[in-house]
Amino acid sequence: MILIDGKKVAAEIREELKKEVSDLKSKTNKVPGLTVVLIGDMAPSQIYVRMKEKAANEVGLKSEVIRYPDSAEEKTVLEKIDELNKDKSVSGILVQLPLPKHIDKQKVIEAISPTKDVDGFHPANVGNLSSGYESIVPCTPLGCYLLIKKLEKNLSGKKAVIVGRSNLNGKPMAQLLLKENCTVTITHSKTKDLKDECLEADIIVAAVGIPELVKGDWVKKDAIVIDVGINKTDKGIVGDVAFDEVSKVAKALTPVPGGVGPMTIACLLKNTIECFKKAH
Questions:
Q1: How far is the C-alpha of 8 from the C-alpha of 200, rounded, in Å?
Q2: Closest CA to 95 of 48, 144, 61
């Protein structure tokens, strides 16, 4: 079985991006800038933002974090986004989710200019992706896609099963694999015979947030399995895939942690640079 090393692939991507940033700087005399807006002090969000900031600095991006307390008004946040939309030195804007309950997530997502929406959540980017047009792709599914493509150049005709239908992962993942001529099935909590669906798959992407849901006898021999889940349990952090069981049958499998996570951040940097290139 191939253990898919997301850390290693993400490090390779960051090296390429570092070179690209340096080339862009010498051509345009400018550096792509990523601004993250963080509201509140939830520990996981704080950790993610620190990791994003560190990775951005590593590849030479201009990085800024704007912090607001939990009590920040929606109006304040929307005004700040408007200001960042107009700021030519900002290539990408990311508002760290989840948001406090009194702030409307949809309003915030729609306030970010589609050309600076490095998360790929704006309806214009979602629409372009599902129409097969050029768009900014959400970072986690993009990371999963790049890992799959590294293993298999030609995905045409393969059957892909996605477990989970979220806007963040499941739906964009389906669009990326459809573009590669896969036959795609999206499954979810209401799917009948989920195990049987998975057993048909050449590629399984599990992004449902249920610890070790996908068992060894759900996976056919030689399937590629991508585990997006990060679940806190009594035995530590586990994915949505029962790693020990599935590793005995799958052709390739991502570990948790160290699989998809590092790719998400590498793809965020990649999206920021893409936004910069489109603007210049």
A1: 30
A2: 48
Domain end: 114, 149, 181, which one? 114
148-170 tens-digit pLDDT: 999 999 999 999 999 999 999 99
The strand pairing partners of 161, in sequence order, are 185, 204
Residue 17 within a domain = no
Catalytic residue check, 234: no
Q: Which two tokens stand for residue 267?
A: 């793809």
What is the residue range of 45's domain?
Answer: 29-114
207 pLDDT band, cuts 50/70/90, is very high
Tell me the C-alpha distance between 2 and 252, whole Å.
4
Residue from 52, 80, 158, 171 carrying the catalytic annotation: 52
Set 96, 117, 171, 240: catalytic member: 96
The total of structural domains in the chain comes to 2
